[in-house]
Amino acid sequence: MELAAVLAIAFYIAAAAALGRPLLNQGAIPRRAALAMGTAAVLLHFAVLFGIHRGAVDLHFYAALSLVSAVIAALTLIVNVTRPVAALGIILFPLAGLFLAIDEFIAPPTAPFPLDWQIDLHVVIALLAYSVLAIAAVLALLLATQEKALRSKRLSAWAVALPPLTQTESLMFKLIVAGFALLTLTLLSGILFVHNLLAQHQAHTAILSLVAWIIFGVLLVGRWRWGWRGRRAVNLTLIGMAILVLAFFGSKFVLEMILHRPGM
Fold first, then answer.
1. Which of 66, 190, 209, 227 has the smallest count of CB within 10 Å of its CB?
2. Could you tell me the residue ranges of all domains in the chain?
3. Number of Cβ within a 10 Å radius of residue 114
4. CA-CA distance, 94 to 98, in Å (whole number)?
């Protein structure tokens, strides 16, 4: 698996470099080549995960980081097919390569938790919700960059490389709607399938996820009812995503890295 991991990391970096050419004034984006390299990286990434984690979903801290980053990278490719946003790949592809490298070469070996199919389904929905909302959060940061550049009348290379502000905002809200729906399914499937939350150290995760769900819900209602946008939308998106990060990775870090307790 080491060779596959090295190739995946190399493809991630090459894809990000190809997408970043306009930022260095080196001509237009070789979009097809970048997407092809990104696709190869994602496929190799999942192959490595399948190999080192025995074909199962491993939710230990570093394995979960690698898995989530692979899902985010795959969704980034899908987004770029429909709505080209090169900056997403420039940011997210190297991060996916970094987390893969940590999981493959630095983190201690782990074995996946034995999970029933119902819990597997809950985890898959949660991963998709987390990944979609993570991309929306990155778009929120890019949107804030665009707005700041427009206000100061200093258009940086980043601002120029992004789609028009209204398109970036529209895509962000579409992803938030999709992520909110998936997060709703995550909470419902958790209620149905995850029993004895305290014994599994999942109560804090559920509570924080519910708080994030409320924040994204308030944002969508505000968007629909009062046309919320701009800084308010960016701030609420980032706050909601920060709480989700705490819900999953924050709690896992404390349980596994500090308290040395197993968690789902």
1. 227
2. 1-112, 115-264
3. 7
4. 6
Say whether pLDDT at 145 is over 60.
yes
Higher pLDDT, 23 or 79: 79
| Chain centre to alpha carbon of residue 93 | 11
Q: What is the pTM of this model?
A: 0.89
For residues 48 and 6, give the distance between their C-alpha atoms in angstroms, rounded to a whole number: 10
At 28, the amino acid letter reads: A
